């Protein structure tokens, strides 16, 4: 079937929370063209579907919306363009998790939901059920007793990522600091530095889980945790956010050397930055 017309003659129904690239891929299958050709039909300058998901401008959204005869606001909500810069490192490059109740089962190509990429979520934004590992990883989290705090942490990170809301410190920055290495006391016999993170001070089960289950945490640069370990980090974020900067200073005392200095300057910088942005928004209101 040719694609000469700008506006598509047939539009496939959207699934709730479907990602834009997924919708484009389903249309491409329907019209029997490569997915990128489908996208470039209205945006010839875009080189990947991932770019359309992550960084799409309003004018491009308008062009896509015109091709699909859809509402631009609806198209925009199918992307990650609204996600705050500080939370973007928590967007996976491929689907990592799924909600067994909401993942559509169809005879055609399966739609891919936006929530499958979000590294701060443990529950489905549509039905509230716990998300499951998509790659056959552990089904149960060893941190289920922190569930309520983890839900609060999920909400804080979601408010920051999706709606730009912040408190005295961006929750994604707290997550980053909590994953820095610390030095346990007394030093265990077989000391593996990457298994001891600041988070283990407030969620003591973490040290044991990492040691016994041989679970690996990502390197310092990434805060995207496997789904079964994520509740620990979310609960930690909620606890620190509630306790205030004093808790970060207490946590700093569990670190040594260069890490300690870096942690200290990160706290000062972030708290300062948050204070300045609060002051400027207050001045704006006067
Ligand atoms: Zn669901």
TrEMBL record:
Domain TniQ residue range list: 9-100
Matches recorded under InterPro entries: TniQ
One Pfam family matching this protein: TniQ
Protein name per the record: TniQ domain-containing protein
């Amino acid at each position: 079937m040719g694609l000469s017309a700008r506006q598509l003659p047939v539009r496939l129904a959207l699934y709730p929370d479907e990602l834009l690239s997924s919708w484009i891929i389903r249309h491409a299958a329907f019209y029997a063209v490569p997915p990128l050709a489908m996208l470039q039909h209205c945006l010839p300058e875009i080189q990947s579907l991932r770019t359309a998901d992550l960084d799409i401008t309003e004018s491009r959204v308008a062009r896509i919306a015109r091709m699909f005869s859809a509402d631009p606001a609806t198209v925009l909500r199918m992307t990650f363009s609204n996600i705050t810069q500080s939370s973007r490192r928590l967007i996976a490059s491929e689907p990592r998790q799924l909600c067994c109740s909401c993942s559509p089962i169809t005879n055609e190509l399966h739609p891919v939901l936006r929530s499958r990429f979000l590294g701060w979520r443990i529950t489905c934004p549509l039905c509230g059920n716990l998300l499951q590992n998509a790659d056959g990883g552990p089904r149960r989290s060893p941190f289920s007793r922190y569930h309520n705090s983890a839900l609060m942490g999920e909400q804080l990170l979601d408010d920051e990522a999706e709606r730009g809301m912040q408190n005295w410190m961006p929750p994604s920055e707290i997550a980053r600091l909590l994953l820095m290495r610390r030095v346990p006391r007394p030093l265990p016999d077989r000391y593996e530095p990457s298994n001891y993170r600041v988070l283990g001070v407030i969620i003591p089960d973490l040290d044991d889980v990492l040691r016994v289950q041989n679970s690996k945490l990502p390197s310092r640069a990434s805060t995207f945790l496997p789904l079964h370990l994520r509740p620990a980090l979310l609960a930690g974020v909620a606890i620190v956010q509630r306790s205030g900067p004093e808790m970060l200073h207490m946590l700093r005392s569990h670190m040594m050397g260069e890490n300690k200095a870096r942690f200290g300057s990160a706290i000062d910088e972030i708290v300062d930055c948050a204070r300045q942005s609060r002051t400027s928004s207050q001045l704006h209101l006067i």
